[in-house]
Design a protein that fits this description.
This protein is α/β, with parallel strands linked by helices. The protein has four helices and seven strands; from the N terminus they run βββαβαβαββα. 26% of the residues lie in helices and 22% in strands. α2 crosses α4. The termini are close together.
């Protein structure tokens, strides 16, 4: 797998490191926001991401599950993470949202550690949902470097979620 400098990721799978150190312009560290405590940490590019733990709360950075976030925690991931962020905007009363939840969970197992998956409850965060321009739920938003890269409304199965993300983030 080729690694592109604009997407600092781990080539060679989840446990791989950068071949020969790094490329010109490649970050030596990757900023990752802990899904448990919200602390931003720097992960060295050669460290296997699946074995990395937060220095503050000591939980694993990647556990194969989407993280539930409020508006403030979402903004932190958006601003400070070097990882692409996939957000499921949902509500507990929404039938298609509930139907898609297990598929989103399975997508997290396939996409982590190259993409951070988050769940944002539209009922609890109406301001954030409005600022994102979400008009229907479920809505998937893919962000990278703080910008929305892609948006899709409607439920998807695991295969479609993973394929959709990979079509927009070349190294996912």
């Amino acid at each position: 797998m080729r690694i592109y400098c604009q997407y600092p990721r781990w080539p060679g799978g989840a446990t791989g490191g950068f071949p020969n150190g790094n490329c010109n312009g490649m970050k030596d560290t990757l900023h990752v926001v802990c899904p448990h405590c919200g602390q931003t940490s720097k992960l060295p590019s050669g460290k296997p991401p699946l074995s990395a733990h937060c220095g503050t709360c000591h939980n694993a950075f990647f556990d194969g599950h989407p993280a539930s976030v409020d508006g403030a925690r979402f903004e932190k991931h958006k601003r400070e993470s070097d990882l692409p962020v996939l957000v499921d905007v949902w509500a507990p009363w929404c039938g298609p949202c509930r139907a898609m939840a297990p598929m989103f969970e399975q997508a997290a197992q396939e996409l982590e550690p190259k993409v951070r998956l988050l769940k944002l409850n539209a009922d609890e965060e109406p301001r954030t949902t409005s600022e994102l321009g979400v008009a229907a739920i479920p809505t998937l938003l893919l962000l990278h470097n703080g910008q929305i890269v892609a948006c899709s409304a409607g439920a998807m199965d695991t295969r479609r979620i993973v394929g959709w993300v990979r079509s927009h983030v070349p190294v996912a």
